[in-house]
């Protein structure tokens, strides 16, 4: 099943993203992260926080995308204003796709610029695939995500995992969605970004 929640051992076996956390901090609060995987990544979903790892300490704000490759059993965050932090752990390779934050919302005149679909759409999101696995971690809002041909009701705390070459889409939103995306190890032709069969050829 391509949707899983935070927790040890809950990710499907094939996933390079093995664990994630969504941490909400009030200004002045702090949190210590125990390392959970070979690799660690932290994205600031909202607000600002001081991130400390190894002998380094940085002030990070919304959209900051931090690869925590410094040796050590822990890293920490102290919020300088109310913040939402999304932490990812796993075993992805050195050459990965993109990562960051994306929104999805209803539009008055949805246009399907991606590969054609037979289901209703109310967003401007495109039906696409990648030359890598991709993970969406929802931390605000709710809606319907499509992955590997199945429709899933998703909301805060859900991770949608899509294998390389499989289409995925966010056609319906109930409340405006904000989520992290993470494209892990690139394979095959290693083409970056959103791919469409009508432009880039068959998915596999």
Structural account:
By secondary structure, the chain is mostly beta strands. It has two domains: 74 residues, Jelly Rolls (Sandwich); 90 residues, Sandwich (Jelly Rolls). Strands 1, 10, 11, 12, 13 and 14 form a six-stranded antiparallel sheet that branches. The chain starts with a strand and ends with a helix. The model has no long low-confidence stretch (mean pLDDT 95). The protein is built from one helix and 14 strands.
Helical proportion, percent range: under 10%
- Count of β-strands: 14
Order of helices and strands: EEEEEEEEEEEEEEH
- Overall, the morphology is globular
Mean pLDDT, all residues: 95
- Stretches with pLDDT under 50, minimum 5 residues: none
Domains (count): 2
N- to C-terminal separation? 20 Å
The CATH level-2 architecture of the largest domain is identified as Sandwich
Fourth-level CATH superfamily of the largest domain = Jelly Rolls
Structural class label: mainly beta
């Amino acid at each position: 099943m391509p949707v899983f929640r935070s927790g040890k051992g809950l990710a499907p076996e094939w996933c390079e993203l093995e664990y994630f956390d969504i941490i909400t901090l009030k200004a002045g609060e702090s949190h210590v992260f125990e390392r959970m995987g070979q690799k660690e990544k932290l994205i600031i979903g909202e607000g600002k926080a001081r991130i400390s790892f190894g002998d380094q300490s940085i002030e990070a704000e919304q959209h900051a995308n931090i690869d925590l490759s410094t040796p050590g059993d822990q890293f920490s965050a102290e919020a300088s204003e109310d913040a939402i932090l999304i932490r990812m752990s796993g075993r992805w390779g050195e050459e990965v796709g993109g990562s960051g934050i994306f929104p999805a919302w209803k539009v008055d005149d949805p246009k399907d610029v991606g590969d054609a679909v037979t289901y209703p759409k109310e967003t401007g999101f495109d039906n696409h695939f990648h030359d890598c696995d991709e993970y969406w971690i929802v931390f605000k809002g709710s809606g319907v995500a499509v992955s590997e041909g199945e429709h899933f009701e998703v909301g805060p705390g859900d991770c949608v995992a899509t294998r390389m070459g499989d289409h995925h889409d966010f056609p319906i939103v109930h409340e405006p969605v904000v989520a992290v995306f993470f494209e892990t190890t690139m394979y095959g032709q290693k083409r970056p970004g959103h791919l469409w069969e009508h432009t880039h050829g068959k998915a596999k």
